[in-house]
Write a structure and sequence with these properties.
Shape: globular
Strand order of the largest sheet: 1-2-3-4-5-6
CATH class: Alpha Beta
Strand content: 15-25%
Number of domains: 1
Low-confidence stretches: none
Mean pLDDT: 94
CATH superfamily: Ribonuclease Z/Hydroxyacylglutathione hydrolase-like
Distance between the termini: 32 Å
Largest sheet: 6 strands, mixed
Number of strands: 14
């Protein structure tokens, strides 16, 4: 990730993860974070397909000296920038168990969804200068369907799942217990630093708010914000309030623009003016932002 977009708080390093987490992120896209239990290992998300070789190198550098393997993948949701490298992890560790929402299986069976993953993955490959690296969505699978409150044991720690829709229907949040480390899903927004939070509402504004309220009611010590990293602990009490506030601000922008008689293209221009920047382009391809913005604006105009 590029620090010209994601900002640290003074005296706080967002990429300094609490134990038992190890950052193995390769390139842009979602963070990839190893979870090291006494008996088993897992990884939270795996980033874009175009960075799969470096990701695998990073994972092996942690696991192989300890004589360990990768046992589980925990998917936050089924978007290309979070699980694009999944087929390559499965090739490298064929026995790995892929965990996530039961709805992920439907996505993996959809040829349309896989074509979108490949198209956006190829766009990212070109944008980030990744040469001719293969981009595929074939081989993705779901091995462990995690329902609300279900957990996977890694030995001395466990990973507990919470359904948090809004960004997608398959969005999941996870709690690493007993450490109280909460991986918040993108349904509750993406933190960019002390001054800005942006939303990722692609399915339902109402469900995004409900997801933020659900996570706010849990007991946790750390919050891992998608794409960002660790939230300073002094921000824990207000983090999800900020998520809800950001969602309400985006909703108001779209509704007020529509009420003023702006065309859909003009509403998109308003959205771009507030939410897009050259700095953001360093971490998210414009094609992906534009696709998401169109979806978000349409659903907010429809009151969903």
């Amino acid at each position: 990730m590029n620090d010209t977009f994601f900002k640290n708080y003074p005296g706080h390093d967002r990429l300094e993860l609490p134990e038992p987490l190890v950052r193995v992120t390769a390139g842009k896209g979602g963070e990839a974070i190893l979870i090291l239990g006494s008996g088993k290992t897992g990884i939270y998300d795996c980033g874009m397909a175009c960075f799969n070789e470096k990701l695998i190198e990073n994972i092996r550098a942690v696991l192989e000296p300890a004589g360990r393997t990768l046992d589980y993948v925990f998917m936050s949701h089924t978007h290309y920038d979070h699980i694009g490298a999944l087929p390559y992890l499965i090739r490298q560790w064929p026995d790995v168990k892929v965990c996530g929402s039961p709805k992920a299986e439907k996505v993996f069976k959809s040829e349309g969804a896989k074509k979108t993953m490949v198209r956006l993955g190829e766009n990212a490959r070109q944008l980030y200068g990744c040469g001719d690296v293969e981009i595929t969505a074939e081989g993705m699978r779901l091995d462990v369907a995690m329902e609300e409150g279900s957990s996977v044991s890694l030995g001395d720690i466990s990973v507990k799942a919470f359904e948090t829709k809004g960004h997608t229907d398959c969005s999941m949040s996870y709690m690493v217990e007993p450490a109280g480390i909460l991986f918040a899903s993108e349904s509750t927004g993406v933190h960019a630093g002390p001054d800005f939070m942006y939303t990722a509402i692609l399915k339902s504004y109402r469900e995004s708010i409900e997801s933020a309220e659900k996570l706010a009611g849990l007991e946790f010590n750390y919050i891992i914000s998608p794409h960002y990293g660790v939230i300073p602990q002094h921000q824990n009490p207000v983090y999800f309030q900020r998520c809800i506030q950001a969602a309400n601000e985006e909703k108001s922008l779209v509704e007020e623009s529509a009420a003023a008689g702006l065309t859909f293209e003009e509403i998109l221009d308003k959205h771009k003016e507030k939410y897009w920047s050259d700095e953001r382009n360093l971490n998210q391809p414009y094609a992906a932002y534009r696709l998401n913005a169109e979806i978000t604006c349409r659903l907010l105009m429809a009151g969903k």
